[in-house]
Amino acid sequence: MPTRPLRTLVLTAALALAACGKAPPPAPPPPAVGFIVVKTEPVTLTTELPGRISALETSDVRPQVAGVVRERLFEEGSIVRAGQVLYVIDDAAYRATALNAQGQLASAQATIRSTALQSDRYRQLAAANAISKQDADNAAASAGQARAQVVAARGSLRSAEVNLGFTRVRAPISGRIGRSLVTPGALVATGQADPLATIQRLDTVYVDVSQSAAQLLDLKEALAGGGVSRQGPDSARVQLLLPNGKIYPIEGKLQFADVTVDQTTGSVTLRATFPNPGGMLLPGLFVRARIVEGVQAQGLLVPQAGVSRNERGQATALVLGPGDSVQLRIVTTRQTVGDKWLVTGGLKAGDRLVVEGLVGVMPGMKVTAHPAGAAPPRPAAAGQGPR
Question: Which numeric CATH code is attached to 45-56+201-296?
Answer without folding.
Answer: 2.40.30.170
